Amino acid sequence: LGGGGWPPAVSSRQKLRISVEQTATGKTSELECNYADTLEEVLSRGAQECGSPRQGLKFSILDGEAASTPSSRKGSASEAEAEGEPAALLQRKQQEMILADNNIEKTIASLREHIQLLEDRRGSLKAALNRTEPVIRRLEEEEQWEEEAHDLDGPVEATRPVGLPNLGADCFWQSTLHCLRHLDGFGNILRPALSDAKNPEKGREAVLATAKLLRAMRMAEDRANSVKAAGGGAARPSVRRPAIANFRTKVSEAMRKHTWNDQEPLLLPASDFYEQRQQDAHEFLSLFLDCLSSAPVPEDRPPSPRQNGPIDEESAANLRRLEEDLTAAYRDAARGTRRRHQEYLENLLFEYSMVQWSLSTTRMRSSKLSTLFEGQRLTCIACSRCQRLGVSSAEPFCIEDAKLNSSGNGGIIAQVSNMAQNASFGLFAPSSTSVALKDLLKSEVLAPEGFRCPNPQCQAVGTSRFFSSYLRLPGVLIVHINRAQADESRCESSVKFEEIIDLKDYDLVRDSGNPLDRNFTQCPTKYRLQSAIFHRGPSARCGHYFAYVRWPREGKKTPWAKVDDERVERPSGKAATPSGLEMSEPADGARVVLLFYQREDLL
Fold first, then answer.
1. Between the N and C ends of the chain, which has fewer C-beta atoms within 10 Å?
2. d(Cα 384, Cα 390) in Å, to the nearest integer?
3. Is 471 helix (H, G, I), strand (E, B) or coil?
4. Which segments of the chain have a pLDDT < 70?
5. Which helix (H) or strand (E) holds 412?
6. Using CA atoms, how far apart are residues 547 and 568, in angstroms rounded to an integer?
């Protein structure tokens, strides 16, 4: 049993398994003993387990410290005796080495677990740091924005394009704002609101928010110019994110209050980008201008009374009387050559236009914004059968809506409509993939299919034509190229437009001696393209908007700049101008949707 006597010199807490074999019968049994058991106890238990006397029993150690010690660390007992070292001392040392090995292995395993835990914590801290860095950067920007927010005593007019970071589906309103910003006089109309920033008047929240963003964009220009002047090279102007968030919040609140009951409000939230939905740039522009002009801007003239609901019976009767008188005056002026007939007709038209203007429910409340954006359009109906010529409407308008409809044979149907009067006119251009802007804005077009002559004695169908002309010319003529189809697809036809247009060449000016503006002041009829919005995408309800704005600089080949989110660049080649881009893009490429023409006396 171990070859070194009994008991082995090890701890009494260790167990030992011993095999007992009856050599005569081959029967075997196992004992579990303590190292502290006496030899007599072990022999007695072995005989008892085999049910035989001690003679003929063979005892062998199966496992235990003495039997499992690696031979590389211990020698056999006979080798130890040969070397002159007691076997008991050798076994003790071997047991101590085994215990030390076990402890080392346990310590190494524990250290590995701690290292893995530290690695996991390091990864968590790194991820937390990555999440925290944008927050810290945003807080720093907000702190800078708070400092800049008090610096409101400065210019807001644009001297160069400034890109805006797209926080999520913001391209529809940002491209619109870029185009408005580069209209001469727009920023200066809103700037007085900054002086009342601490105590803004109710109803002017959108005006103040827009003025603040325009001021932030101008400050971004000044910072970039300062860097360049200090020898730092060309720097891209950058607008703080809080300035954009402030605009989105305030304008969103104002629009929700201003939206009509049957119209879903446009969402401009200041929270995370996933709450922002893509919208139509034309819809935003219409509601945005209406929202800005819903109350007089600071330093504005008191607004004239505006109709807030359906017209009363007396006003309606007065309109009917004027329309009948105008119909008779048109007939007399056409038949006679006397000057008094023409003067009487012009006087009636003036009175009729003033009545329609005062009764309009969509007219701007701000006279300054109205001077820049509003005009008045006269629409007449002529019947070739009864020769009746009568007026249809003379309401204010801000945006001309030119409708493009795809035809089945590859041609297009182009329709132009006045938003304010909700009338539409059509032009069919067969086998054509493009149409001229002049044709879209034709002053004389056929009445819609099924239109009946309003003369009670005639009532003929298909014999009427519409004649349209401007009684008052807007300071900015905004043309919406409406490409949306009934199936939400986009009409891909291109539109040919010029940078300089004359409304006299379009037969759109009511010539009563001299062309007049919104305030009945003599004005020119020529307009210059200042900015344009393009859309790129598979349908009218999804895609991306970007803007072209006029930015003339000495030494530059093109006076245009392309503003696409934060990117501002000089276009080149065929796309160097808005019209060049429109005609050079493929059918499914970028297409113009809004054109901003400004009258030459306002430039």
1. C
2. 12
3. strand
4. 1-14, 63-86, 135-151, 197-203, 229-235, 258-278, 298-310, 334-339, 406-432, 443, 511-513, 554-555
5. strand 412-418
6. 10
Strands 591-599 and 476-482, sheet pairing: antiparallel
CA nearest to 163, candidates 569, 568, 533, 534: 568
**Helix, strand or coil for residue 66?**
helix
Tokens matching residue 28: 């075997």
Spatial distance between the Cα atoms of 169 and 171, rounded to a whole number of angstroms:
6
7: cis peptide before it, omega within 30°?
A: yes
Please give the pLDDT value at position 143. Answer: 52
Nearest to 44 by CA among 57, 61, 28: 57
Whole-angstrom distance, CA of residue 532 vs CA of residue 555: 23
Query: What is the phi/psi pair of residue 396, to 5°?
Result: -65, 155
Strand-pair partners of 526: 502
| Cα 292 to Cα 206: distance, rounded to the nearest angstrom | 6
C-alpha 126/C-alpha 132 separation (Å) is: 10
Please tell me the predicted confidence (pLDDT) of residue 140.
58
Query: Are 236 and 224 in contact, with CB atoms under 8 Å apart?
Result: yes
Q: Please report the sign of the dihedral spanned by the C-alpha atoms of residue 305, residue 395, residue 405, residue 534.
A: negative
Strand order in the sheet with 28-34: 28-34, 15-22, 57-63
Distance, in Å, from the CA atom of 451 to the CA atom of 384, rounded to the nearest integer, reads 13
Structure tokens at 411: 């041609």
Q: How far is CA 204 from CA 9, 37, 180, 396, in A?
A: 98, 101, 18, 22
pTM of the model: 0.71
DSSP string of 21-60, one letter each residue: EETTT--EEEEEEETTS-HHHHHHHHHHHHTS-STTEEEE
- For residue 166, the model assigns a pLDDT of 84
d(CA 271, CA 295): 28
Determine if residue 431 is left, alpha or beta; phi over 0 gives left, psi from -120 to 50 gives alpha, anything else beta: left
Note the pLDDT of residue 537.
Answer: 86
pLDDT at 337: 58
Helix (H, G, I), strand (E, B) or coil at 345: helix
pLDDT attached to residue 78: 46
- What's phi and psi for 92, nearest 5 deg? -65, -45
Distance between CA atoms of residues 478 and 601, nearest Å: 16
Instruction: With residue 377 as reference, give the H or E element that holds it.
Output: strand 375-383
Give the 3-state secondary structure percentages of the chain, helix then strand then coil, rounded to 5: 40, 25, 40
344 CB-near residues (< 8 Å, 6+ apart): 329, 332, 333
Distance of CA 64 to the CA centre of its chain: 76
3 state DSSP class of 594: strand
**Two structure tokens written together for 497:** 């437009």
- What sign has the CA pseudo-torsion 500, 505, 507, 512? positive
Tell me the backbone φ, ψ of residue 34, rounded to 5 degrees: -95, 150
Phi, psi of 62 (to 5 degrees): -80, -50
Q: What is the pLDDT of residue 328?
A: 80
The closest of 380, 389, 455 to 421, measured between CA atoms, is 380
Tokens 């008052």 correspond to what residue? 472
